């Protein structure tokens, strides 16, 4: 049996006929190549993002707000995210699909983290998992990686800890920045293949990026990280209210509203359905 060793010449938009892997992510860091990541929660939009060349898709616990209508990520469960993750995997052929481990699914210890991580790989087909926290989750990261489950770490504003933070605030200023740096180095040593830096000062994110051999993925962390991630509904203008760090690249809400109004008007007037929409 021959083993393919091909790698994409670029992570974004590269074509190899196979899934992006953690080795490809590491190679992009070595090349100094920046790359994009988006969230995804269903097969159809995941297919669009995959076809567009997005190399990594995150099935985030942000589904709590953008899919399920909660005010935070806290209520999301493993059983909520597994079918969403499976749908994203089925809708893609190239992107690495990373599943968020939701609040309460790994904090209790190694055994819980392994059980949850295994469910996402076995039941949903995820290629990696993401969890929040620094030093306190190092045993979970080490155990997951040792079990063959790639781990994306997450530091800075960790939404699952929003109640402890007292709200959604920038993290890592002053002495907290040095603790974040230490956490990032510890997570790398524990085996994480990348780390998300959310809502941290740009200067700190740039220093962390330079200090690590694994990629950093920024969200509200300035331009100095190796990659950038956004919630796709924020990026595409579907979310009514977004954070300062979001750039809207489309007005999907406006397009959808216009289409709905045109459909409704056609139904009311009798213009739809027309003869071409029926059967004989």
From TrEMBL:
- What catalytic reaction does the record list? (6R)-5,10-methylene-5,6,7,8-tetrahydrofolate + 3-methyl-2-oxobutanoate + H2O = 2-dehydropantoate + (6S)-5,6,7,8-tetrahydrofolate
Pfam families referenced in this protein's UniProt entry, alphabetically:
Pantoate_transf
> Gene3D superfamilies from the entry?
Phosphoenolpyruvate-binding domains (3.20.20.60)
Q: Where in the cell is it found?
A: Cytoplasm
**Does Ion transport count among this protein's keywords?**
no
Q: Which keywords does this chain's UniProt record carry? A: Cytoplasm, Magnesium, Metal-binding, Pantothenate biosynthesis, Transferase
Q: Which residues form the active site?
A: 198
Indicate which residues the UniProt annotation says bind 3-methyl-2-oxobutanoate.
61-62, 100, 130
Q: In which pathway does it act?
A: Cofactor biosynthesis; (R)-pantothenate biosynthesis; (R)-pantoate from 3-methyl-2-oxobutanoate: step 1/2
Database matches in CDD domains:
KPHMT-like
Q: Which cofactor does it need?
A: Mg(2+)
Q: What does the record's cofactor remark say about binding?
A: Binds 1 Mg(2+) ion per subunit.
- Which sites bind Mg(2+)? 61, 100, 132
Q: What is its EC number?
A: 2.1.2.11
Top EC class per UniProt?
transferase
Quaternary structure and interacting proteins, as annotated: Homodecamer; pentamer of dimers.
Question: Per the similarity annotation, which family is this?
Answer: Belongs to the PanB family.
What name does the UniProt record give this protein? 3-methyl-2-oxobutanoate hydroxymethyltransferase
Upper lineage:
Bacteria, Bacillati, Actinomycetota, Actinomycetes, Streptosporangiales
- What gene, per UniProt, encodes this protein? panB
């Amino acid at each position: 049996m021959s083993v393919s060793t091909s790698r994409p010449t670029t992570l974004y938009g590269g074509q190899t006929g196979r899934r992006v892997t953690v080795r490809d992510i590491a190679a992009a860091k070595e090349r100094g190549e920046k790359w994009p990541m988006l969230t995804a929660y269903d097969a159809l939009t995941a297919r669009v993002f995959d076809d567009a060349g997005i190399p990594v898709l995150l099935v985030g616990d942000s589904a709590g707000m953008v899919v399920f209508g909660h005010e935070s990520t806290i209520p999301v469960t493993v059983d909520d995210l597994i079918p969403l993750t499976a749908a994203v995997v089925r809708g893609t052929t190239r992107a690495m699909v990373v599943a968020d481990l939701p609040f309460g699914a790994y904090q209790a210890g190694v055994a819980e983290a392994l059980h949850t991580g295994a469910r996402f790989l076995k039941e949903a087909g995820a290629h990696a998992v993401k969890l929040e926290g620094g030093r306190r989750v190092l045993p979970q990261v080490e155990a997951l990686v040792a079990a063959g489950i790639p781990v994306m770490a997450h530091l800075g504003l960790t939404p699952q800890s929003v109640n402890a933070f007292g709200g959604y605030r920038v993290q890592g200023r002053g002495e907290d920045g040095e603790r974040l740096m230490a956490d990032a180095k510890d997570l790398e040593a524990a085996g994480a293949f990348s780390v998300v830096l959310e809502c941290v000062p740009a200067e700190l994110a740039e220093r962390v990026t330079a200090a690590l051999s694994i990629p950093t993925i920024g969200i509200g962390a300035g331009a100095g990280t190796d990659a950038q991630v956004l919630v796709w509904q924020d990026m595409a203008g579907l979310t009514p209210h977004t954070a300062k760090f979001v750039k809207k690249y489309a007005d999907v809400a406006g397009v959808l509203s216009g289409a709905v109004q045109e459909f409704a008007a056609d139904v009311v007037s009798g213009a739809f359905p027309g003869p071409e929409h029926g059967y004989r």
